[in-house]
Each structure stands twice: as structure tokens, then as C-alpha cells.
């Protein structure tokens, strides 16, 4: 297997480096192509206003002056001598649960791989200051070993969140649905040295009460959450009501 790793925290991120060190022993070839800086919350942004530069750092480690989605696009569109078989994005510092997946560059990097017809996994340690990144890497090793025995379909995209616990204290794996956070907290107003108003984007509010099958509930209980995701955002239950609603619009 030719395994591609990426992330949104940047190519020097400890989570990415630790995961690469562990997974290199499991596959025939491993390459890293990741942003040259932190791109958290970049979502699925592609750079269209300028060309992208790629920098080599040895051991098939490459940084790109672009977004996480840019990195996976380049890696799967001719930069290498062959197309990777699979992409894993992470290990992110901090959770990508529920609504987070809309904003996450980590998830977007994996999504780009799935969009380009390869199995893809996004991986996050739920702590913003992880103590057990290395243990999270071992969890991904276990999952990859299972994939090598029982390959995933090219249609599969998994969002995985791992509790920040020692390897031996992880209770197991559970398939989950996305949970839900409340609206973001208000923007934080500050002033620059010239007295002009500036604003920091507010943090997400605390998670609402979750059903036991959601990703947010499962990681709180000490399990690894695995959520299958898809591209189609169509709200099928609303098709008929909206069609009925449209009949009332006058089109003169």
C-alpha cells in the first residue's frame, strides 16, 4: 500500500509526525503532504488565486503553501509517480465532532481523498492539549492493520475521534452519528494599537445533551468514535414540503 498522510495543523505537527513514525512500519510506502503552517478551520477551501509551491524535507515529507485540500489534491493529481491507495488526515489536536466537520481542515483533507476515489480517514484526538498523541497513533495503527486485512471500499470516508487516554484505557470502538453543538459564542472585540476595532471569532458553545449513539457521547465514555460520512447534503425529508411550499410563489 502507498499511504498518504496529511492534516490541517501543518507538516511539523506532533500528531502527524507520531502517526507517520508508527504507520511507516505497516505499509510499503508512506508520504506526507501537508500545509506549511496551521490551517485549522480551513474547511474544504482550494487555492485558486495563485500557483502552489511544494517543498521537500526528506523521507517523502512535503509541505505546501496552501490548504489541506490543496495538499491532497496535489498528491493525488500527478505530483507523485503513482497515485496513493489511501489517505489518512491527522492526528488533529482537538476534536472534530458533530458540526465541527463542516469547518475542519482535517476532515476536508480526507474528504478530498474520498472525492478523488480513494478510501479516506480523518483522525482527531479530542483534547486541545493532548497527553496521549502516541497512544492515538497506536489506535490508528490497529485500524490500518484491520483495513489491510479487510480493505475499505473506495466509497468509504470515516471520521474518527479518539479520547485522550492511554492506549490500555481505551474501551473500544463504536460506530456513531454526528452530534450537535449549539451556535458559536459571540465574537470577541479587541482594539489594535491605533484604537481600531478588531474581532476574534467566538468559540463553539458547549455540546448540547447528546443521544448515546452520537460521536460526542461515545468519546466522553472512553470509546473511539467512528462516523461514516458522505458528500450528499440533500435534506430528503424536506423535498416534498418545500415542493408544496413553492406552489405558493407567484411567478408573473
From TrEMBL:
Gene Ontology cellular component annotations, sorted alphabetically: cytoplasm
Keyword Aminoacyl-tRNA synthetase: no
EC number(s) on file: 3.1.3.5
Cofactors demanded by this protein: Mg(2+); a divalent metal cation
GO MF term list: 3'-nucleotidase activity; 5'-nucleotidase activity; exopolyphosphatase activity; metal ion binding; nucleotide binding
UniProt binding sites for a divalent metal cation: 8-9, 40, 92
Keyword annotations: Cytoplasm, Hydrolase, Metal-binding, Nucleotide-binding
Uppermost EC category: hydrolase
Residue ranges constituting the Survival protein SurE-like phosphatase/nucleotidase domain according to the UniProt record: 4-181
Cofactor note: Binds 1 divalent metal cation per subunit.
Subcellular location: Cytoplasm
Reactions that this protein is recorded to catalyse: a ribonucleoside 5'-phosphate + H2O = a ribonucleoside + phosphate
Similarity remark: Belongs to the SurE nucleotidase family.
NCBIfam families (alphabetical): PRK00346.1-3 (NF001489), PRK00346.1-4 (NF001490), surE (TIGR00087)
Annotated function: Nucleotidase that shows phosphatase activity on nucleoside 5'-monophosphates.
Name of the protein this chain belongs to: 5'-nucleotidase SurE
Organism: Suttonella ornithocola
Amino acid at each position: 500500500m502507498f499511504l498518504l498522510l496529511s492534516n490541517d495543523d501543518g507538516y511539523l505537527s506532533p500528531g502527524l509526525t507520531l502517526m507517520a513514525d508508527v504507520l511507516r512500519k505497516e505499509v510499503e510506502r508512506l508520504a506526507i503532504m501537508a500545509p506549511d503552517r496551521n490551517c485549522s478551520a480551513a474547511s474544504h477551501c482550494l487555492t485558486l488565486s495563485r500557483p502552489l509551491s511544494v517543498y521537500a524535507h526528506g523521507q517523502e515529507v512535503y509541505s505546501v503553501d496552501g490548504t489541506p485540500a490543496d495538499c491532497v489534491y496535489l498528491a493525488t493529481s500527478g505530483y507523485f509517480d503513482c497515485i496513493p491507495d489511501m489517505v489518512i488526515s491527522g492526528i488533529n489536536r482537538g476534536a472534530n465532532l458533530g458540526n465541527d466537520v463542516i469547518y475542519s481542515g482535517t476532515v476536508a483533507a480526507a474528504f478530498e481523498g474520498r472525492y478523488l476515489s480513494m478510501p479516506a480517514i480523518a483522525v482527531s484526538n479530542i483534547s486541545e492539549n493532548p497527553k496521549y498523541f502516541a497512544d492515538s497513533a497506536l489506535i490508528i495503527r490497529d485500524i490500518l492493520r484491520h483495513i489491510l486485512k479487510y480493505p475499505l471500499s473506495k466509497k468509504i470516508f470515516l471520521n474518527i475521534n479518539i479520547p485522550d487516554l492511554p492506549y490500555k484505557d481505551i474501551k473500544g470502538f463504536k460506530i456513531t452519528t454526528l452530534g450537535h453543538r449549539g451556535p458559536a459564542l459571540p465574537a470577541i472585540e479587541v482594539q489594535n494599537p491605533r484604537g481600531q476595532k478588531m474581532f476574534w471569532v467566538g468559540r463553539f458553545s458547549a455540546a448540547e445533551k447528546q443521544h448515546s449513539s452520537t460521536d460526542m457521547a461515545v468519546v466522553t465514555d472512553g470509546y473511539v468514535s467512528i462516523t461514516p460520512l458522505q458528500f450528499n447534503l440533500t435534506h430528503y425529508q424536506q423535498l416534498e414540503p418545500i415542493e408544496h411550499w413553492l406552489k405558493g410563489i407567484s411567478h408573473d
